[in-house]
Amino acid sequence: MKVIIVGATHAGTFAAQQILTEHPDYDVTVYERNDNLSFLSCGIALWVGGHVSDPDKMFYSSPEALAKLGADMEMKHDVTDIDTDNQTVTVKDLESGEVSEVAYDKLVVTTGSWPVIPPIDGIDNKNVYLCKNWTNANELKNLAGKIKSAVVIGAGYIGAELAEQYALTGKQVTLIDGLPRVLAKNFDKDITDRVEKEYTDHGVKLALGEMVTGFSGDDQVTVTTDKGSYTADIAILCTGFRPNTGLMKDKVDMLPNGAIVTDEYMQTSLPNVFAAGDSAAVHYNPTHKNDYIPLATNAVRQGILVGHNIEKPTVKYLGTQSSSAVELFGKTIAASGLTTEGAKARNVDVDSVTIEQDYRPDFMLSTTPVQCSLTWDPETHRVLGGAFYSDHDVSQSANVISMAIQTEMTIETLSMVDMLFQPNFDQPLNWINAVAMAAVAKAGEKVTN
Questions:
Q1: Among 127, 187, 235, which Cα is nearest to 385's?
Q2: Cβ proximity of 44 and 135 under 8 Å
Q3: Do 239 and 154 contact (CB within 8 A), yes or no?
């Protein structure tokens, strides 16, 4: 069996590992245009801020490791065309310039994503940087000790973390986003209001609800928006990602944004072509629909599934809840599933409730509040999402909500799930039970009324 894998970050790396673990006799070739693979780009902000012990540890595999498993590693090779009718790929060696055509029996498309780079005047300014891969990471790290100011464009997770780290290391920071709130696609207003206060308390200028219209300058860069202008030593584009799937356009089924649609075995509309990671759609369990959610956790699981199913459909995809967390200014902010705003954007009817309680009893020498939100289907009472905010590490609470969504648990069941009590760790009524009980009470009031 000749298998070609195109791209090797998260999904491609795990697909290669799993295929060769289960089928060591397969002829597996990996084409990767870079000279490295498996870079954990979610650690870029931490590295810029000085929180990484060794940047080499930001890679969880290597070309040598996959070659040891039996893969033919063709690094710095760019796949320029895929002929799905004749089952061949055209490949260019980026060092020699040599072009070749290679046949396959099975194709794995793990081409990932690429930052959204809007066609704005001055976008090629030398002081405008991206934040995606190892090259970008090195550029930003090398600049970290030289700059005094930065404009971060995009207040999603990546931009939010970069802005925080620049602020904590004494830079003058402006954070711009076209949406009216930071982390607007990740959390509802009751949490983002608190996050925004942390930014302003730490000297970050927020330019929200502003669209960038141009870049200019030489020694510094001036970022012009539809409402003002901001000058700094550098500007970093963190405006989101889009699937890097041009090679498969009009060849397999896709979402409107180009994400490749797969079945529950990671097969595309062509049975001998698989897709995974940022190039693929996910099955989003809160809505039971395909969606585009580029997260490393999704990519890893999908890549493993490609390995399980490369010979024949064997292990089904469980879908995703899009669970995630971020630490900003010492606060833990975590979520899984739908927020009320996310539900509205997807035309899903939800109800929600928010509570706040100390994470452990007041008789302890110290405690701190946890803010909890829960969303559910008002008809079935099925749990659809939850979010948490606290000085305490509540990140694993998102995983509890993820399991509740995965198993289609109701708010009634979640309210009574057996959770430990020990004064060091929580209250007799854990905050997750408590917010679910508040949801049950609210749902009961609506029935009574």
A1: 187
A2: no
A3: yes
Please provide residue 8's backbone torsions phi and psi, each rounded to the nearest 5 degrees: -145, 70
Chain centre distance of CA 78: 25
Q: Would you state the structure tokens that stand for residue 393, as one six-digit string?
A: 């590490």
pLDDT digits (tens, 9 = 90+) for 367-382: 999 999 999 999 999 9
- Which residues of the chain are modeled with pLDDT < 70? 446-449
Burial of 391 (0-12, 13-18, 19+ CB in 10 A): middle
Contact status, residue 147 vs residue 234, Cβ threshold 8 Å:
yes
Residue 410 structure tokens:
């109701």
- pTM given for the model: 0.94
3-state secondary structure of 446: helix
What strands lie across the sheet with 324-328, from one edge to the other?
A: 324-328, 331-337, 383-390, 369-376, 351-358
Of residues 112, 218, 227, 135, the one with CA closest to residue 180: 227
Question: b/e for 215-224, b at 16 or more Cβ within 10 A?
Answer: bebeebbbbb
Instruction: Write the DSSP string, 299-364.
Output: HHHHHHHHHHHSSS--S----B---EEEEETTEEEEEEE--HHHHHHTT---EEEEEEEESS-TTS
Cα angle 222, 223, 229 (rounded to 5 degrees) comes to 90
For 179, the token pair is 């949406």
Instruction: Give the pairing type, strands 241-243 and 113-115.
Output: antiparallel
Read off the tokens for 444. 């009961």
Is-contact 4 88, C-beta < 8 A?
no
Q: Which residues of 270-295 are buried (b: 16+ CB within 10 A; e: fewer)?
A: beebbbbbbbbbbbbbbbeebbbebb
Task: Render pLDDT for 159-184 as a digit per residue (tens, 0 to 9).
Answer: 999 999 999 999 999 999 999 999 99
Provide the pLDDT for residue 431: 98
C-alpha 317/C-alpha 266 separation (Å) is 7
Q: What is the pLDDT of residue 445?
A: 79
Distance between CA 348 and CA 338 in Å, rounded?
A: 9
* DSSP string of 376-434, one letter each residue: E-TTT-BEEEEEEEESS--HHHHHHHHHHHHTT-BHHHHHH------TTT--SS-HHHH
Whats the size of the chain, residue-wise? 449
For 51, the token pair is 């929180």
Of 346, 328, 432, 419, the closest CA to residue 383 belongs to 432
Residues acting as catalytic residues = 10, 42
For residues 3 and 9, give the distance between their C-alpha atoms in angstroms, rounded to a whole number: 17
- Classify residue 383 by burial, with Cβ atoms within 10 Å: 0-12, 13-18, 19+: buried
Residue 448: the pLDDT is 63
250 burial (CB, 10 Å; 0-12 / 13-18 / 19+) is exposed
